[in-house]
Amino acid sequence: MGKPKGRRGKSARRARQGQLGLMSNAGKKSKQFTKLTELREEKKDEKREIEALKEKVRGKLADEQAAKQPHSFVIHTGSVGRYVKRLERDMRRVMEPNTASHLKVSKRNNFKDFIVNAAPLGVSHLTVFTKTEEHINMRIMRLPQGPTVSFRVKNYSLARDILSSLKRPVIFQELFLNSPLVVLNGFNQPDAKHLNLVQSLIQNMFPSIHVDTLNLANIRRTVLVNYELETDTIEFRHYAIKTVPAGLSKSAKKIVQSRIPDLSKYEDISDYFLNPGALSESEYEEEQVEVDLPQDLKTRGCKKGQKTKIRLVEIGPRLTLQLTKIEEGIDEGEVLYHAFVKKSTKEIVALRRKLPLIRKRRLRHQKNVEHAVIRKLEARNKRLEKEEADFNIRKEALIRKQKQVTGDEELYSDEEKPPPISRQEEEEMESSDENDEPPNKVRKEERNEKSRRPKFRTSKNKS
What CATH homologous superfamily does 72-325 map to? Predict the structure, then answer.
């Protein structure tokens, strides 16, 4: 037999050369490898730069869209009580996420402070709750030019009261990550222009919806505002939208929605599906609407093209409002509508003529108030400075007197020696010392005076 044929593979040849220490083509390979690694790193860097640019563009677009969306403050003024404050918190929850949820309103805050600070923060609407002895009022203002719409809150229910009345409340934090869907009904009444203004104001408090770019999975809440013509009131309701797959039994829904059923009572899985007791649909008694989904939803079992039932679960608050007044501007200007005061055309024309004069008087009054406050502050500062100067003079006089008594005045030279205390300063110091007597000494002197008074005793007639 001849010699076995040697391995002619490239890798085997490189291995033998490496064992012998003869790497003739090592330099060529290393150059190719470095070129490939450099190309790969360049491609990775390009991808990273492109992704960073995309993120910047997305951030700018998101900031621009957020700036265009309406933002709101919900506050109260004056003493309103704890229940109105809870109603204020519930209204902030309705307006989320485009509102200041944790805004603190203290007694020191003035109503004008919120109006001044609203402009740099991009706030477009301001909702204010006030309380009188008879009614609770709510005002909605469009900043910065108005109008101001005033309502009277006839009835209201807090969110916690509504949730406590439900058997299965639907409330979780993901509901409030996106703004609600607004539904307005009954405002298109003939010969009622004030209702059209109220409709546009409420509609513009929430972000607009673009049908082409709308994602149905982000709509988890809805706000219903309905105008009742018979009672002349506005009903405000807040609902959570719940979607359930249609055409399935209750037992099948549990499995589709990845809820593990209790099968300990059944001998076979078929009994679980064929049991007539498990096919009941009594968990929801209200009306349900079946729709064909054009998009996928976050709820399990609700996919595109499938039939889905839509349910509305109220989460509060609940308000019954009555429109009282519409003003031009922010709490100042012409009254465009009033529910209780009706004026003729002549009176309206006369008021419009007097309106510039009324505005001048208001500005003059505001300036007078500001000047009065400035004068009070200046007088207070002058009084404090005078009291401090008098205190320093008195302190120096006491120091000079003490040094004269202890003999420390010899430490001074003839030039640095302070002037002697005058007779008038000594009398003032003595009088102040007499007035500043301790209360214990005064009480002791009073008790001594009482003990010196003669005591009179009355003798009782013995029977």
Answer: Brix domain (3.40.50.10480)
